[in-house]
Specification:
Number of domains: 2
Strand order of the largest sheet: 1-9-8-5-4-2-3
Order of helices and strands: HHEHEHEHEHEEEEEHHHHEEEHEHEH
CATH class of the largest domain: Alpha Beta
CATH architecture of the largest domain: 3-Layer(aba) Sandwich
Shape: globular
Distance between the termini: 29 Å
CATH topology of the largest domain: Aspartate Aminotransferase, domain 2
Number of strands: 14
CATH superfamily of the largest domain: Type I PLP-dependent aspartate aminotransferase-like (Major domain)
Number of helices: 13
């Protein structure tokens, strides 16, 4: 049996990064503030231009970017921040780190926020942090309209959504602040890293200073200097900067974004069609305004018990495809009941039911059609191993 491909290796770093890395290795120029045009400074300018926004701030991680985003809003201690109950543990962790309180919102079986539950919790909220988990965009028209009506700022956790669009607008530019990840499994890869974007001069000034622009290093950021001067010495320094080596790895990858988005969408939609042909598997469709940029695929098991779902995951692994079922994978950081650092958990039956049958498998943009066929065949075959082959109509 031909086994499916390794889906965990990232794409090679473009050769264009090598000369800059060799230069830095030769002179040790690794700190972002040694010059006005350091690799980090250039990355920020180029990423902002790609996204069509005024300002960008490179950070040590997307979690650091989320933390700085919350702090830059000037929220009071104990501020209530709405987040979807389907997200990675780093998101509520960033909220806690910012001395705020996460308020979990129900998520439907299409992995998107339940707008009714969202609206019911909005009155007591001070901020909204929308996590586009695994690149699935919730109804941003409804969310932004409700946020505007209640005068509540919106932060987008777009860690998985670089390249995704909503009504033709880039995800991460819809709210006051957008945050992205450069961890190795994301569209741009520097191993670790993240970036914050905004059009708000006051937000970027606060974020830059708190990121670690001590003394007058903020003068090396080509943005509105009067706001920096206003906040000098008034804010703590959290030192969440990105280094020049990471920026050198990232800069030449920006040109690869359109190709990676195109190939990732093509791969996802092809495999989704094959999985949806099975009576046991279902890939929820995107919302109409959404054009996704996926590098993984999520699907729901239909008609499975807990034991049957575990048997499916075992059968898929035996066929060479590793699948995590969010609610059944031990200590999964995407299952909200494992966030014990939050204390008592709310009752979120809709999200819990979804997580108990929602499956996740990597699907990198670099894969070819034959490799996609092997992955889809393994997943469909694993379902048939547990449930039996579906009979054709009339047999």
């Amino acid at each position: 049996m031909t086994l499916p491909p390794n889906v965990y290796d990232a794409e090679p770093i473009p050769d264009a990064a090598r000369a800059e890395i060799d230069r830095m290795l030769a002179d040790g120029d690794l700190f972002r503030y040694t010059s006005d045009d350091s690799p980090v400074a250039l990355l920020e300018q180029e990423f902002a231009a790609h996204m069509g926004v005024k300002y960008a701030l490179a950070c040590a991680s997307c979690s650091a970017a989320l933390f700085l985003a919350l702090k830059s809003l000037g929220l009071p201690h104990g501020a209530r921040v709405l987040i979807p109950a389907f997200t990675f543990a780093a998101v509520p962790s960033a909220v806690v780190h910012a001395a705020c309180v996460p308020v979990l919102v129900e998520v439907k079986d299409n992995y998107r926020i339940d707008i009714e539950d969202f609206e019911s919790k909005l009155e007591s909220a001070d901020a909204i942090l929308i996590s586009h988990m695994r690149g699935h965009t919730s109804d941003m028209d409804a969310i932004l309209a409700l946020a505007f009506a209640h005068d509540i700022p919106v932060i987008e956790d777009a860690a998985h959504s670089l390249g995704t669009e909503w009504h033709g607008r880039k995800i991460g530019t819809l709210g006051r602040i957008g945050c992205f990840s450069f961890q190795s499994y994301k569209l741009l890869n520097s191993g670790e890293g993240g970036i914050l974007i905004t059009d708000d001069a006051d937000i970027i000034a606060r974020a830059v200073i708190m990121s670690g622009a001590y003394e007058h290093n903020w003068k090396k950021h080509p943005v509105l200097q009067d706001r920096f001067a206003h906040w000098q010495n008034k804010l703590p320094l959290y030192n969440t900067r990105l280094g020049n080596l990471s920026a050198a790895l990232l800069r030449p990858q920006i040109a690869e974004i359109p190709r990676r988005v195109r190939d990732g969408r093509r791969n996802h939609d092809y495999v989704a069609g094959l999985l949806n042909a099975s009576p046991w598997l279902h890939v929820p469709p995107p919302l109409e305004p959404e054009a996704r940029a996926p590098d993984s695929i999520q699907f729901n098991l239909k008609g499975f018990s807990d034991d049957g779902a575990r048997a499916f995951a075992d059968a898929a692994e035996a066929r060479g495809v590793k699948v995590q079922i969010f609610g059944l994978s031990e200590d999964n950081a995407r299952a909200f009941w494992n966030w014990q650092f939050l204390g008592d958990m709310p009752d979120l039956p809709q999200t819990r039911a979804m997580l108990m049958r929602a499956c996740d498998a990597r699907l990198p943009a670099r894969l070819k059609r034959a490799e996609l066929d092997l992955i889809a065949a393994a997943l469909v075959g694993a379902a048939e191993d547990v449930k039996g082959k579906a009979l054709a109509y009339g047999t």
